[in-house]
From TrEMBL:
Organism: Kangiella koreensis (strain DSM 16069 / JCM 12317 / KCTC 12182 / SW-125)
Name of the protein described by the UniProt record: Adenosylhomocysteinase
Domain S-adenosyl-L-homocysteine hydrolase NAD binding intervals: 150-313
GO molecular function term, any single one: adenosylhomocysteinase activity
Gene3D superfamilies found in the cross-reference section: Adenosylhomocysteinase-like, NAD(P)-binding Rossmann-like Domain
A single Gene Ontology CC term: cytosol
Length: 351
């Protein structure tokens, strides 16, 4: 595949209905003509559909790639074929109309004239720390639709990656998962299809109650001895807290040695006490070893939302941090569920 058109043919409307509709709309109206936009989202081949829509909208684009993963070299070649500029993250500097960010990695090097859109929880927290921003900062993480990508999509990708590269059959094995946010929920959901032996470590009291309600075992992450005992009894340990060094900082690491270890977050959650070789994918988010870290059916709605959040910032110019408009959020979830034959009750039971 050598062009944006090839990728839209590879992912037909049945798989990516939102982006196909967006492409048609943007080709007809060019709503962002003349806008300068920096696009900092993991550069995989699936991301090219999202970028193609922005190009069709008339935007003057610079594409870069977050620091926590390697960019796809074939994707860079296709951007060159399509005359879209790719610039390494450390070289992206200056003033732009919009920053489409991931992990708030553009906040220190770039100035936004009209608005910022953030994709992740880590980035949302970083942007929230900037109390006096001069433009709207719209978060698509603080939405229900983000669960389609982060809970179902990332959960499925982590499950797919680990089961593909594990040197043991994980059926009925003991699994310890750190964190029961969106990512942890999805990981537990997919691994529960092959084993009932799942323990989830969580510090939040409400989440601990939710874990038990959903039929998993829970352990208070603040109880280090209980955690270490659970780790010693585990075959697979997965981190999904979003907190750097959480294992190294809080527990005796001997309990984690000689286990299958996987990180599902952007940060190095196992931390300084572990060599990269001790953790699958050298501590990077494990699903990013896959050619498609997240399947397109789960990326489609969040890619769509990350782009149209520009409209949110243009229509509501109130400065500071906020979530994407709730009506837009709810409409996307309902449309996705109907298209992919899920019910809202089924989604509610997961997240």
């Amino acid at each position: 595949m050598n062009s944006f058109d090839d990728f839209f043919a590879h992912y037909p409307p049945e798989v990516a209905p939102f982006l196909h509709q967006m492409l048609a709309d943007y080709q007809a109206t060019q709503p962002y003509k003349g806008f300068s936009i920096v696009h900092n989202v993991p550069l995989t081949q699936t991301t090219l559909l999202k970028i193609a829509c922005l190009k069709a909208a008339g935007a003057d684009l610079i594409v870069t790639n977050p620091s926590f993963m390697n960019e796809d070299q074939d994707a860079i070649q296709i951007l060159e074929n399509e005359k879209v500029s790719y610039v390494p993250l450390e070289q992206v500097k200056g003033e732009f109309d919009f920053l489409l960010d991931c992990g708030a990695e553009l906040v220190d090097s770039c100035y936004a004239r009209k608005g910022i859109v953030e994709l992740t929880r880590t980035g949302a927290m970083r942007y929230q720390q900037h109390k006096e921003f001069h433009v709207p900062i719209v978060s698509v993480d603080d939405t229900r639709l983000k669960c389609l990508e982060t809970c179902l999509g990332t959960g499925e990708g982590v499950y797919r990656a680990i089961t593909q590269i594990a040197n043991i059959d994980l059926t009925n094995k003991n699994i310890l998962i750190f964190g029961y946010g969106k990512v942890g929920i999805g990981i537990a959901y997919y691994f529960s299809k092959i084993t009932p032996n799942i323990i989830i470590a969580e510090a939040d009291r409400e989440r601990l109650t939710l874990i038990e309600h959903r039929g998993h075992q829970s352990v208070d992450a603040k109880q280090s001895q209980l955690i270490e005992h659970a780790a010693e009894a585990s075959d697979l340990i997965i981190t999904a807290t979003g907190l750097k060094d959480i294992i190294s900082d809080n527990y005796h690491t001997g309990a984690f040695k000689d286990k299958l270890l996987a990180n599902a977050g952007a940060e190095d959650e196992f931390g300084f006490a572990f060599e990269a070789s001790e953790v699958l994918a050298d501590k990077k988010p494990v699903n990013f070893i896959l050619k498609e870290p997240t399947l397109m059916e789960f990326l489609d709605p969040i890619f769509y939302a990350h782009n149209i959040a520009i409209d949110d910032a243009l229509s509501n110019k109130k400065t500071g941090f906020r979530a994407l408009d709730s009506k837009t959020d709810q409409a996307i979830v309902s449309q996705w569920a109907e298209h992919h034959d899920w019910t809202l009750d089924q989604l509610n039971a997961i997240f």
